[in-house]
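This entry is retained here.
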Amino acid sequence: MRAAVVNSFGGPEVVEVVESAVPEPGARQVRIKVAAATVNPVDAGVRQGVFGGAGKQLGLGWDVAGTVDAVGVASSWRVGDEVVGLHYGVGAELGTHAEYVVLDTAAVALAPRGVDAVHAATLPLNALAAVQALDLAELEEGQSLLVTGAAGAVGGFAVQLASRRGVLVTGLAREGDEEFVRSLGAVEFVSSGVEAGAHDAVFDAAVLGEPALEWVRDGGVYVGAIPQAQPGSVRGVRTTAVEVSADGGRLGELVGLVESGELTLRVAEVFSLGEAAKAHARLAEGGVRGRVVLVP
């Protein structure tokens, strides 16, 4: 099968499409024939060497939508099931940017009905990151949350999910994104000039760091989007960061919200697997609204 990998670190040009053996599922695993897989900033991080792994082949791709085509022992899935899933990709030799991928059964959920695979592939990593970040914030109904990067993939999911919980969301994004961010459920919108200490919590999806920390009230909560990279605590603010984990049960709940129209899936551009380097180049250009998606 074909798979997109990196064997050295650098820009989009280091992404290679290589031939590899089709993986076999083990106990409590499934093999998925990939229909679509999203290109995320974490893939750029792997490509650039942010997570280490020099001297070995590193696979790319965390999100997947596709069809179960083989199952291991004690798998609860059946061949032919249409699914979405999350592959935790740091250090793996192969990821979801391939024609087939093997996942643990617990990392998989039924794909949303009525949604094509390209859009479905944008759900797992970004929506799980958003909901797990909100869990860390521990906000109650009526409390206030500022989401930076509110028009982005993770930030947009966070606005929708927090609004469903009765949290009063302010979205921080570019001025031209106000109508969109408000449509997601934000009660307030800012593009600059955020008031210091005005919010019970900040989810810093845009990775602004210490400036975003200043917008949290004394004793509030700052949640970062990069594990172990949150700023130090000041003014009694609890600082933490989300490290997304595969959770098929939670992913299934998010699928249900897609089916009910409560979560919006956005695709920016679609590339073939053979154009993986071009997809990375597009992501590196910035200004992407929605996700870049690869199809085999």
About this structure: The chain has eight helices and 16 strands. The first strand starts at residue 2 and ends at 6.
